[in-house]
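User: I would dearly like some help making sense of a protein record. This is the protein in question:
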Amino acid sequence: MAHNSLDNVVIVGGGTAGWITAIMAKSFLPNSKITLIESEEIGILGAGEGTTPYFYQFLLNAGISISEFIVETGATIKNGIKFTNWNGDNEYYYHNFPVKDPSLNPVFSFFNPYHVLNVVKNTPKNTLDFVSLLNESNKAPFTKQLSVEMNSLSTFAFHFDAQKVATYFKKIAIQRGVVRIEGKVTSINEDENKNIKSLQINDQFNIGCDFVFDCSGFKRLIIGNHYSSKYVDYSDRLPVNKALPFFLPAEKLEDIAPYTESIAMKYGWLWKIPLQHRYGCGYVFDSNKITAEEAKTEVEKLFNITLESTRTLSFTAGYCETPWVNNCVAIGLSAGFIEPLEATSIWTSLICLEEIFHDLNGLKKQDQSLIEEFNMSFKIINQEIFEFIFFHYMGDRDDTSFWHHFKNSDIIPENLKKLLTKWDTRVLKYRDFGSFDTFTLDNWFPVAYGINKINKEVMKNTAIENNLERLLNDEFQKFETYIKNVSKNCMTNSYFLKLNGVK
């Protein structure tokens, strides 16, 4: 018999995912007892330090002060991602978050005319759009007349210190009434329908539960070990499986870049995330091709530094086929992890939590149709993330066996093959992309242009067929001038941080 109340909600695991879940659970279920179980001995992974615009919306919805968040977590603005050397030519391109002001990104009903004209005019990839101009000047998407609490010119996210975020969110959650218990789950007790009725902590006492969130990270303590949810493994096609994390000294506040940099390496890629007090970095590599020591040597040569540790984090690209089973749902790394390239982990967690809490009556009844719908949505979102991530690796770089792997047509996802076939004969259109709009044309185009997957002849023909010469000769120039002028009026990342209390 399903539970018909949510008096006792238990979250297993802390970290960013656990404490975000706790804050949202307390917000949607203010009369329920929300308990989070975590162990200082286990600690948290603390590697993910980049987000998407969904995270900013979470802060607003949760009533969390933006300025306080920035000061407490070492946060900086993130406009998007700079991809360096992904074609093996030491050039770069940006994949930025979408602009909000229509005058900065005009579109036709099916495609973006400026995408077409950028290709026809052979515009450098690093000046594709308004947000790229901001990035080149280390600027945030705000004029001095717009505060962060008001409308920004483009969507944005944050970089942050993951350890500090977990600590900060823990403080907020406990202030709001969430109960934290130090300890480990040592056994799980079910009722006759295999719903979890209680969790034993440290072999000493039981905690009753009506609903459980498994936020135990890669251990997948409940959804994997207990419920044996099948893991859909993408590692044969996305072979990066280890990360070598390290820190670099921070730039001066005035020089902090408003983007994550993703640098293509010989056997994977490296993230470089600017915070107020340091860079958070990590080499994500295929351990079947190189050892951690070899990865360390490659990093040391790139930055002319000496790393003291070869501590690595291990993961398998993929997701749980059924992250929601009975009265338990996995959130965060326990539900799956495609890989860190587009900072999708926290974003996926927020999407899942919103869907879970959207229908509280269905949640209380553990409605099977709701569970099946959620699991199907989760599957589609992860498939779309996988396809988009895979696409990034399909550029011109081919100097090692790692990069050559992505030239094998047998491993290219079928949906991606269909998209590439379409784009050989016509421009990319908004309707080409997934049912969940996980990534849209405005995400796919800069990556496609960045890795040289745009058919320039098709673009030229489209410009002629749609009478874009007028734009090409007149309006395009006006548009370029307009976005340059708007970007000049935007504040620097450092000014934005100082405006929000950073010393």
